[in-house]
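Contributing new complexes? Match this layout with fe (ii) ion.
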Amino acid sequence: MQPQQCKTNQAGSLNAVLVVDDEPSVVRAVERLLSGGKYEVLTAAGPVEAISKLRQREVAVLISDQVMPAMTGLELLALVRRSWPETVGIMMTACRDVGLAAEAINRSLVQYYVPKPWDNRAFLGLVGEAADLHLQRKRRTGPKQEETGLLKQLKEQSGRAAFSLARAVDARDRYTHRHSENVAELALVVGRAMGLSDNELEELRVGGLLHDVGKIGISDEVLRKPGKLTPREFDAIRLHPEIGASIVEPIGFVWDIAGIIWQHHEDHDGAGYPRGLMGDNIVLPARIIHVADAYEAMAADRVYRSARSLDSIKKELMRCRGTQFDPVVGDIFLEQLQKGVIPYPCSHRRLPRGRADRRLSP
Ligand SMILES: [Fe+2]
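Output block (do not edit by hand):
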């Protein structure tokens, strides 16, 4: 085996290796193994902390445990592959979980896996290879290409068209004033916290603005009904993701906005609609918008009611993480709420007196 050499990035600073494990003794052991001036070793006790570190600086190699409380290593690595494609993943697993490691390699989420307990020399060799691969990926990608003038113009026009359509939807239902704009803004906070690129953020913004455009196809009697919906009326409302997707399809957005609209009521555990998709089969923007939509429904003052208390909203988000909501997206949303980046309440409209309460919009 070749002796380890210092691994530096193009800026001349040490390559960062991020170790994610909820077991402090494992983190310390890997940290000791990799220290000695060859790498800058960063550590995280779980996926949310790991994502926060990935946002702060470039990470060459991510070494992740599989079994963690908030989300699995596979889920974290899938997210990293999507948002930070140049970062090279290594999975650490116990021998009994070797099938999961094989799945991670087959899905191109990781390049290597390290069995626990590991052989120090072999582990060091793999980290060295992973750092080299990171460098190759960066060279292949090269500096980010400037968008052509035409594409930029097309995106700007798409954004403006989406804004107008969203205004049309919100204007139809006076009870949910600015709902679409609020959802788009909330989704962007989460998207930025997850390190999404500018292009992905723009896709998320347009998806957020248009998520409920299908409500244009729902009758006023159902959409504006002040009381509880009958099962038949509820079925009618549940058609709005499919109607919305069919409305935007002919526009030919540069992003898959129809897919986002179609999936914005799908639940992490498969109990949502219209198709009962599960987990990361649901596109990430739809998972983010799902949480933002629910939060906005609870946290915005409406003319007929005040926002729910912040405490009860937090409890509700905690209760639904992992069932209705993607657990990572849910945790990041709660983290941003805790930091005060997510506003509470969402809007500050003065409530007229004596208005009857009304159901939350589905
Ligand atoms: Fe909706």
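Reviewers usually confirm one structural detail per submission. For this one: The first strand starts at residue 16 and ends at 20.
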